C-alpha cells in the first residue's frame, strides 16, 4: 500500500491546489478536467489512435535498433579485429548527443514516419549495443572451457554457452534501450507530427490546453511504465537464473 | 592399451619452461595422483591432456572419452542440475545415463535445482556427474576438493572413491593434499623442478607412504625444517 501513498498524496495536493485556485487552469488543469479530457479522447477514439501510432513508432524503431545492435554487437564482441575496425567509429557516433542528429535526419529523411522511426532507433541502439559487447566480453572463460573439454564446435559453443551467458546483459541493454526509445519518440513527435502522444503535447500547447498536455504526459508515463514492466517480466522469465540482487 | 600415454611433452609459457620432455603412462583402470608444489605444472599437465592447452612438442594419446572436473564446479548457471549433467550427452544412450549418474553422486533429489541454489559440495557433485555422463575412460580431476571446507572435502573424497571403484575409470587426480592421494590413487607421482620432472613415483600401499611422499615434496612432518634452521643459528 505504501507505494500508492505518494501518488495519491500528489493527486490530492493537485486537486486542492487547483480547486482552491492556487494555480490557474490555464497554467495547470485540475484532475477533473484531465479526467474528462481523457474520457473524451477515449470516447472519440483519438486516444487509441494516438497511442497506437506512438506504440508502433517505438516498436519499429526499437526493433530495428535491437536487430542492428545484436548484429553489430556480436561482430564487435566476437572479434578483436572487427572491434578495432568498427568500435571507434561507433563510439564516436555515440559521443554525439543523439538529439543533435535531428536536423540531419529531418533534412535527409523528411518529416515522415521514416525520420521518426530512425530517431527512435538511434536512441535505442547504443544502450543495447554497449550492453551486448560488454556481455560478450564478460562471458566466463571457464564456462567456455567446459564446452571445449566436451569437444563442442564453434557454433555449438555460441548457441549453447555464449548466447545464454550473454542474454542477461542483452536484456538489461534492451530495457534501457526501450526507455531511450520512448524518450526519442517524444523528441520526434514534438518536432513534426500530426498524430501520436507527442502530437497531443504540441496540440495542447498550441491551443493552450493544459488538460490535453497532462493527458499526454500521463499516457507517456503509462506507456513507459508498461514497457519497463514488460521487459522486467521478460528478464525474470528468461534469465531468472542469474545470481544477482535484482536491480 | 593404456588410458593415457604422454611422450616428450614440452610446454612453455613465454620463457618459463613448464615441461621439457615429460613422459607419463596411465594404465587402463589405474588411478594416479599427481602432487607437487603450487605452480609446478600439475594443472598444466591436466589441461594439456584435456585439450585446453596445446603442447609445444610431444604426443598425448588417450583412448576413449575424457571427463574433466575442475577446482570450481563450473556449472552453467542457466541450466538446472539435471540439464547441466545432461549437457555433454550426444545421444539417447548418454541422456539415459543422466538419472543414473545423478543417483551415483547423491543428487537425485536436487535434479531440478539451479546452480545458485546448491551448496559448494553439491555443486561439485553435479560437476562430477556431468563428467561421468559420457562414461569416460579417463577422469581428469584438477584439485576437485580445493574449494571445499574440510568436512565437505572428506565427504566428497569418499564419494569420488566409491564412484571410481564403481565405474572402473582411469583417473588422474591433481592435488596438493597427500590424504587425497592416499585415499584415491593406486600410484602417486610427485612433480618438481623447472622444467618439471617426475621426482617420485610409488604405489599406494607399498612404497608410496605418507612419509615418502612428503619427503619427495620436500616437507618434513616433524618440523625438521624449523629444527635445521634453528641449528644453523
Write the layout of secondary structure elements.
The complex is a heterodimer of chains A (247) and B (233).
Chain A: H1 2-19, H2 31-44, H3 46-78, H4 80-95, H5 102-109, H6 113-137, H7 141-149, H8 154-191, H9 197-206, H10 210-239
Helix pairs in contact in A: 2-10, 3-4, 3-6, 3-8, 3-9, 5-6, 6-8, 7-8, 8-9, 8-10, 9-10
Chain B: E1 4-13, E2 16-26, E3 31-36, H1 42-50, E4 57-62, E5 66-69, H2 81-86, H3 92-95, H4 98-104, H5 120-132, E6 138-142, H6 150-167, E7 170-174, H7 178-184, E8 187-192, E9 197-203, H8 210-216, H9 224-232
Parallel strand pairs in B: 3-7, 3-8, 5-6, 6-7
Antiparallel strand pairs in B: 1-2, 1-4, 8-9
Helix pairs in contact in B: 4-5, 5-6
How would you characterize the overall build of this protein?
Chain A is mostly helical and 247 residues long. Chain A has ten helices and no strands. Chain B is an alpha/beta fold and 233 residues long. Chain B has a six-stranded mixed sheet with strand order 5-6-7-3-8-9, with helices on both faces. In chain B, strands 2-1-4 form a three-stranded antiparallel sheet, covered by helices on one side. In chain B, strand 8 and strand 9 form a beta hairpin. In chain B, helix 4 (98-104) packs across helix 5. The longest helix of chain B has 18 residues, at 150-167. The A-B interface holds A 142-143, 145-146, 148-151, 160-161, 164-165, 167, 239, 241-243 and B 50-52, 66, 68, 70, 72, 74, 76-79, 87-88, 114-116, 134.
Helix amount of chain A, in percent? over 70%
Query: What is the helix fraction of residues of chain B, given as a range?
Result: 25-40%
Total number of β-strand segments of chain B? 9
Q: What separation lies between the terminal Cα atoms of chain A?
A: 21 Å
Largest sheet of chain A: none
Rg over CA atoms of chain B: 19 Å
How would you spell out the order of helices and strands of chain B? Answer: EEEHEEHHHHEHEHEEHH
- Largest interface pair: A-B, 17 and 18 residues
Amino acid at each position: 500500500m505504501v507505494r500508492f501513498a505518494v501518488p495519491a498524496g500528489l493527486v490530492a495536493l493537485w486537486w486542492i491546489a487547483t480547486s482552491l485556485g492556487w494555480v490557474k487552469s490555464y497554467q495547470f488543469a485540475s484532475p477533473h478536467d484531465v479526467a474528462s479530457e481523457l474520457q473524451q479522447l477515449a470516447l472519440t477514439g483519438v486516444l487509441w489512435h494516438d497511442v497506437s501510432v506512438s506504440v508502433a513508432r517505438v516498436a519499429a524503431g526499437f526493433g530495428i535498433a535491437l536487430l542492428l545492435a545484436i548484429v553489430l554487437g556480436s561482430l564487435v564482441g566476437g572479434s578483436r579485429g572487427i572491434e578495432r575496425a568498427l568500435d571507434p567509429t561507433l563510439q564516436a557516433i555515440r559521443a554525439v548527443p543523439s538529439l543533435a542528429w535531428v536536423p540531419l535526419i529531418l533534412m535527409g529523411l523528411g518529416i515522415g514516419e521514416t525520420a521518426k522511426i530512425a530517431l527512435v532507433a538511434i536512441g535505442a541502439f547504443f544502450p543495447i549495443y554497449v550492453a551486448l559487447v560488454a556481455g560478450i566480453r564478460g562471458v566466463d572463460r571457464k564456462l567456455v572451457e567446459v564446452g571445449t573439454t566436451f569437444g563442442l564446435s564453434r557454433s555449438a559453443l555460441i548457441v549453447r554457452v555464449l548466447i545464454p551467458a550473454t542474454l542477461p546483459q542483452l536484456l538489461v541493454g534492451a530495457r534501457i534501450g526501450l526507455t531511450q526509445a520512448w524518450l526519442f519518440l517524444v523528441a520526434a513527435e514534438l518536432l513534426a507530427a500530426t498524430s501520436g502522444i507527442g502530437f497531443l503535447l504540441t496540440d495542447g500547447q498550441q491551443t493552450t490546453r493544459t488538460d490535453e498536455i497532462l493527458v499526454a504526459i500521463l499516457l507517456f508515463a503509462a506507456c513507459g511504465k508498461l514497457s519497463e514492466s514488460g521487459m522486467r517480466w521478460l528478464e525474470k522469465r528468461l534469465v531468472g537464473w542469474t545470481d544477482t540482487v535484482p536491480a | 592399451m593404456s588410458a593415457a600415454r604422454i611422450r616428450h611433452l614440452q610446454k612453455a609459457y613465454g620463457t618459463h619452461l613448464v615441461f621439457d620432455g615429460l613422459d607419463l603412462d596411465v594404465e587402463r583402470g589405474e588411478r594416479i595422483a599427481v602432487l607437487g608444489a603450487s605452480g609446478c605444472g600439475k594443472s598444466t599437465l591436466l589441461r594439456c591432456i584435456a585439450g585446453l592447452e596445446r603442447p609445444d612438442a610431444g604426443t598425448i594419446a588417450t583412448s576413449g572419452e575424457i571427463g574433466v572436473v575442475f577446482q570450481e564446479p563450473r556449472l552453467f548457471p542457466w541450466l538446472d542440475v539435471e540439464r547441466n549433467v545432461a549437457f555433454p550427452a550426444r545421444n539417447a544412450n548418454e541422456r539415459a545415463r543422466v538419472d543414473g549418474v545423478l543417483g551415483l553422486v547423491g543428487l537425485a533429489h536436487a535434479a531440478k535445482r539451479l546452480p545458485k541454489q546448491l551448496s559448494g559440495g553439491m555443486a561439485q557433485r553435479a560437476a562430477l556427474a556431468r563428467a561421468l555422463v559420457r562414461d569416460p575412460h579417463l577422469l581428469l580431476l584438477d584439485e576437485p576438493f580445493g574449494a571445499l571446507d574440510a568436512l565437505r572435502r572428506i565427504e566428497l573424497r569418499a564419494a569420488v572413491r566409491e564412484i571410481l571403484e564403481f565405474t572402473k575409470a582411469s583417473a588422474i587426480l591433481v592435488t596438493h593434499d597427500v590424504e587425497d592421494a592416499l585415499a584415491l590413487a593406486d600410484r602417486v607421482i610427485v612433480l618438481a623442478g623447472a622444467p618439471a620432472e617426475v621426482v617420485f613415483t610409488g604405489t599406494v600401499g607399498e612404497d608410496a607412504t605418507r612419509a615418502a611422499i612428503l619427503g619427495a615434496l620436500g616437507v618434513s612432518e616433524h618440523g625438521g625444517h624449523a629444527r635445521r634452521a634453528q641449528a644453523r643459528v
